Structure formats: C-alpha cells, structure tokens
Amino acid sequence: MRPVYAVSGGVSKFAKARPDKTFQAIVKEAYDYAIDDIGLDFPTFTRIVDGSVASYFSDHFARQLMAGIMAQDYLGLCPKPSHRVEGGGATGGLCFQEAWKSIASGHMDVCVAYGFETMSHVETWKGNEFIAHASDVSFDYPVGGFYSGYYAMMVTRHMKEFGTTVEQMATVSVKNHLNAYHNPYAQKRNRYTIQDVRNSPMVSWPLTRLDICVMSDGAAATILVSEEGLAKLEAAGAQIRRPLVRVTGIGRGTDAMRMADRPHVDYDDFIEHYATEQERSSTETAAYYRRLWEHGTRYPGIHSFRAGRTAGNMAWKMAGISDPLHELDFVELHDAYTSSEIQTYEDLGLCRYGEGGPFAVSGKAFMPGIEYGLELPENPLCAVNPSGGLIACGHPVGATGLMQAVFAIWQLQSSIGQHFGDEALQVPVARKGAIHSHAGTGTYVTVSVLERED
Amino acid sequence: MTEQPMRKEESLGGYIVHNVPFPLDTDPEALSILKRLAPISIEQEYKITYLHSYAQDSPWFAALTNKRLLACREPETGYTYANPRGHDMYSGQETEWIDITDRPARVHTFTVCHFGSEEFLPETPFVLALIEFDGVNTLLLTRLLGVDLSKPSLDWVGMPVRPQFLRNSKLKPTDVYFVPA
Q1: CB spacing of B83 vs A143 below 8 angstroms
Q2: Among A144, A377, A388, B93, which is 20 to 30 Å from A75 by CA?
C-alpha cells in the first residue's frame, strides 16, 4: 500500500441548529476551509481532486435519500467518483478510512472525505427515537429503545464489577467541556464542576444530561493524498504544511447489534484474542486479569467494547505502537457518554480493563496548562479529547469522525492556535495521535493513527 | 415544593401561515436584502406503516402469547442465546428452540430511564434491564417492574427475577417483563 498523507481539513461551526443553510452548504463551509487552508482556489482544487467519499448517518434526519450526491453536486465534484458510507456513530471514521483506502490502493491521488448531519430537523426526543432505530427493531427498540439507556446499563455493570464512580464519569465531562472552552468550533463551551454534572437532570440512571453529548448540525472535510497527489497539488500552487501528516495505522472492529448477544469469554480466550501486546507481555497484568476473572469478570460482556479493542490492536500493530499511553501524544475518541470515554480508555489500552475510572481522575488524559478546578494527582501524559470531544463539540454523526481527523491534523501540524485563535489546546509536542470513531452500542469502531513526519 | 425546569420543552405545531413578507418590487436593491433574511422553516409530516415480519424468529413471539419464554440453542455445543437467533455465530449451524421460562434468572445490569425516545416518553420513568439465566450464554433486554424507581442501587445487580407475561399479547418483546422473584 502507498503512503497516505492528510494535508488539510475544515470544520463547520457545530450548533444545535443551522436553519440558515442546507446540508450541502454546511458541507461547503468545511470543504472551502480545507481548500483555502492549502492556498488553492475552488476551480483549481476541483480540477485536481480525483473523487470523494461522503459520510452521513441517517436518512431519517435528512428525510432525503441519496443526500451524498446532493453534497457532491453542490461541491461541483460531479462527475468524479464518490460513494456514501454509513455505519452509525462511526460513519465519519469509516469515511476517513475509505478515503485512505482510495489513496493507499492507488485508485486516487487526491481524495476528499466529507461528512455532515443535520439533526435539528426533528425535536430532541424524536431524534432519540431515530437513533434508537440503530438497535434491533424486533427485540431492542420496542422494549424502550433509548441509547442513553443502553449506555447507562453498560456503566452500571462497569460500576458494579470495577467500582467505577459517577464522580469519575463527571470528571470526564468537566475535562471535555473545559477543553472546548478554548475551541471556537465547539457547540458547548462551558465551565462545569463535578457537582454541576451530578446536579444536572437525570436522563438514565446513573447518566445525567452533562454525561451525554448533544445533537448537532455540522459538517467536516479532510483532504488525503498520495505522494503523487501531493506533487500535483503543489505544482498547482498549494502550500502544504511541513512536516507532513501521514496516516500510519488503520483498524476496525465490529460486534453484535444486540448488546445482549455479546459473548462473555473466559480468561484464556481473552488473553489469546483480545489482550494488547503490552498486556500479554506483563506477568503482573496477567495476574491482575486472572484476579478479575476469578471475581466473575467475563469479556467483553456489556462493560467493554471488543470492537474498540480489535480496532485499536489492529491500528497499533500497523503503526508499530506497543504502548499507546506513552507513544501517543493525544487521542480524539468517541465520548458520546462520559462512561464510554472511560470504557474506551480501556479498549485502547491506555489503561487496563477495570482501571478506566481511576485513569479518568489521574490527570494523565488532561491538557497541560489548563486550570480544570480539579485536584489531579499525576501530570498530563496523553491528552484525551483535547478538542472537547463529542460531549462538548457536539455530535453531528456523519461529521464527527471527520471532525476528529481535522483536529488531529491541526494538532500534528502545530496549527491549532491559527485555526482556533487560541493556543491553549495545542498539545505541546504533538508527533503522534489517534482518532477513534464508534457506532451503536459498540457495533462498528474505527481507530486511525496519524503521525507527523519529522 | 416541586422545582420547575428553567426551560420549557420545545414542541412543533403552531399557526398556519399562508404568506410571508417579500419585497414589493424585485429591483436589484430590493433583491439584495434577500441575502439578509432569516430562513423559512416548514413542518413536513412523515408517517409510515410497515408490514414487519418476525420471520424465523416468529415462534419466540408465539411462545410469549402462550406465556412461555423460549431461547435458541446450538444442538451440538449447547451454546444458548436468550434472544431468538436462527443460526449459531460460532458453528453456523441452525439452532433449536428450548423453553427457559422456569430457569433461575437474575438482573445482570439495569438503568432507570427518566427520558426516552419520543414513543416511550409517556412511559417514563421505566427500568430497562438485561437479564441473565442459568445455562444461557447471552442476556435478554427487558423491562423490570416491581422496584422502587426513586432508589436505584447497584444492589439490584444480581437480584433474582422471574418473568411475567401480558395477559393480552401485543406480539412485541414487551409481552414479557421481569419482576423480583
């Protein structure tokens, strides 16, 4: 496969509602930004780009089939090749990886991945109903389909098995909202305390409103290129930032649609098929997991996401990462819920299964130089959701995974200050980062690694 | 005193409007202000009735109407699914139906939903739970009744429960629900 570079990106303002523009025009905001950021004009880029991948989750929200082609049309990309991808909350991450495939395979030299969602077209609880249709409509949805309920059940089990606390979850909310305070693209830029999170209305015990991301309208776009594509853009006058940002790892995993159907595997099966390289090589960790299993833990059960673990392991292996916590400088992960950020720390191997709660309050996942109003025992090590994540940025589903990619590109280009108008969220030494996109109750998960080529 | 929320819940619906302001003339100066107008939003209703077949899973619903709870078992390995599943995910073999109505069952996890999808908002608060059964490898999503909704507790995890069935079946998975045993 050929090297793939992520050279540019753009994000529209994420908002509760964008009635001022159609979805095509919102996509164009992000697309134009990405083109402008490499110093090209619209006709020149249109001439060079080979094709695109479109990302949006729900035909229900759009009430428009084939919305992808309407964006392609509006962007002036017809008759170039394109296709739409869909995989629930992971749609944006899948789109990024499909664009990567187009370049890596040699099918294209310049490919743009764009995504959007306009969720404001229905009221919040109807929107929840739409989203709940991404659970089995024969057996899950009719029982009381509600994603916040599904995730609340997961974390209830996590709390019971591992001792995770609501205060640990609330700490994630405080962190991500406060990070977003410095991100002008974010939907919710607020300072909260742990008490604020716990005092907000209870949505689905133990998750409160501030433990949960909101619905959004928004779009994002990224431009991926091969070495040949890079040369074509630069020959046309593009100003591509150096050092380049290369996509070095791609991973995906899946799991059963019905959360109830997930397996509960034994210790040996877990170690053989799911443990990270680091976990396998540590006798102390093997003993730790043995103790968990002796106390009844089974994997993945409903407290963990084997799709996320599978995607992570695959991406780490491809990128040559054996210790993600120490080798990654930041992770933008899919925190639709504070609890799922904690679950994902574990899936990605930032800490061991069962230790996500203590990891959340350790300080390791925080940004340096930001005053969170919390007592954090350890120094920042690997910033998680420096952008503010889904909880604070918003979650216009088809755009979300691409938004993560754009923020990762900007981190690795050290250009956060330029794009945000605020240096606070620039990870000081950003050489390697990961983006994590997650669907359903963990049905599709993607992990991609991006690195700065020094 | 009952505390009032600070914000009123939004809803659709309102007056029918048959005309909206627009420049009386369409000269360039008048048209130029069109770029500065707020957008027009309309309501569009979208209602569908689907004919949904439970297909090979139909016996599970038929059993509920007869107050029995079925599960699916791989005949050779014995791997058993609490939900209907026509073929085993490991061997690919067709599963067989077994009756688990009287198996010991416990709460594996739960939540109390204070909000929900629009369809279920009138039913809030309600408890969603995943139930584990002796000799069954997977869980069953269901409603849990007979608990104090104002006092959710991790102690509910592991609570022995038993199935109850609607007298008048709706041919939905909610024809069965669970209560403390």
Answers
A1: no
A2: A388
Q: Do A223 and A102 belong to one domain?
A: yes
> What ipTM is given for this predicted complex?
0.96
pLDDT at A132: 95
Q: Chain B within 8 Å of A273 (Cβ-Cβ)?
A: no
One domain for residues A288 and A334: yes
Tell me the residues of chain A between 395 and 454 that have a Cβ less than 8 Å away from chain B.
none
Total domain count, chain A? 2
Is A325 found in the same domain as A405?
A: yes
The amino acid that residue A340 corresponds to is S
Q: Which domain holds residue A430?
A: 249-452
Other beta carbons less than 10 A from residue B47's beta carbon: 4
A225 and A78 within one domain: yes
Contacts of A173-176 with CB under 8 Å at 24 or more apart are: A173/A197, A173/A210, A173/A211, A173/A338, A173/A391, A174/A372, A174/A373, A174/A374, A175/A365, A175/A366, A175/A372, A175/A384, A175/A385, A176/A335, A176/A338, A176/A341, A176/A385, A176/A388, A176/A389, A176/A391, A176/A392
Q: Which helix (H) or strand (E) holds A393?
A: helix A389-393
In order, the DSSP letters of A324-372 are HHHH-SEEE---SBHHHHHHHHHHTTSS-TT-HHHHHTTSTTSPTT---
How do beta strands B105-113 and B160-165 pair? antiparallel
- Residue A49 belongs to some domain of the structure: yes
In whole numbers, what is the pLDDT of chain A averaged over residues?
Answer: 97
In a domain, A165, yes or no: no
Same domain, A303 and A354: yes
CATH at A439:
3.40.47.10
On the question of pLDDT at B1 being above 70, the answer is no
pTM given for the model? 0.96
Burial of B1 (0-12, 13-18, 19+ CB in 10 A): exposed
Cβ contact A218:A12 at 8 Å:
yes
Rounded to whole angstroms, the Cα distance separating A26 from A50 reads 22
Residue located via tokens 């002036």: A76
Which of B46, B137, B141 lies nearest to residue A143, judging by beta carbons? B141
